[in-house]
Amino acid sequence: MDCQSLLQYLKHYLYIRYLYKKFEFSRIKAMEEKYNVVATGGTFDEIHVGHLALLSKAFEIGKKVIIGVSSDAFASSTKGNNTLHHNYEERISNLKEKIKEKFGNVSYEISKLDDVYGPTVIYGDVEAIVSSTETAIKGDLINDIRSRNGLKPLNIISVNMIRAEDGYHISSTRIRNGEIDCFGKLLKKN
User: Among 91, 112, 152, 186, fewest CB within 10 Å belongs to which?
Assistant: First the structure.
C-alpha cells in the first residue's frame, strides 16, 4: 500500500471512529430528546460506511428503530441486472451482526420491505424517518400516504451520502462491482 492510499484509508478509518464516538456521546446526552420510534431502510447487501452513518443517525435520535430491509423480490425489481451477493436471510444476519458490533445493545426491529414505503405508511407510532439525501424525497411520498391514512406526518431526517476516495458516492453496487471497499477505498482504476 503506497503512502497516499494509507493516508486515505486512515482518513476513512478516523471518520468512522468519529461517527461512532459522536453516536455514543449523543446517545448519552440526548436520551430524553429522542423520538420514540424512528424508521430507516435499505437493501443492506454489502454493508458499508454509508449504511453505518444512516444507522448511527437513526439510533442517535430514536429510542427504537424500525429497519426496513428489501425482500429478495423487491430488491431484484429495483436493482435490475445488478445481482445481489446475499439473499434476504443472509442480509438480515449480517445486519444484526454489524449492529451488535458497532452499536451494542440498541432497540430495533427489522421489517421486510416489499415496496418503498414499508411500515411507515401504516404504523402510527413512527415519528421520523432517516434517509440519505438521495432518497429523502421518498419521505414526502410517505407523508402523502400517511395523510390519506389519517396518520401524522413523519419528520424527515436526511444523512449526507458518504463519498469514496474518487468523490463518488459509496454504494453496495460499487462494492459488488469491485470498484471500492466498504470504506470507499478504490480497488481498481476506471
Answer: 152
C-alpha span between 156 and 63 (Å, rounded): 16
Largest CA distance in the chain: 58
Q: Which helix (H) or strand (E) holds 11?
A: helix 3-29
Q: Is 70 exceeded by the pLDDT of residue 24?
A: no
Query: Is 178 within 8 Å of 2 (Cβ atoms)?
Result: no
Summarize pLDDT for 157-172 with one digit per residue, the tens: 999 999 999 999 998 8
Helix, strand or coil for residue 3?
helix
Contact 35, 155 (CB under 8 A): yes
Beta strands in 8-59 (DSSP E): 35-42
Residue linked to cell 414505503: 117
In total, the chain counts a number of residues equal to 190
CATH no. of 3-176? 3.40.50.620
Report how far apart, in Å, the C-alpha atoms of 169 and of each of 39, 49, 132 are.
22, 11, 11
Structural domain spans, the chain: 3-176
Cell triple for 170 = 459509496
Residue type for position 29: K
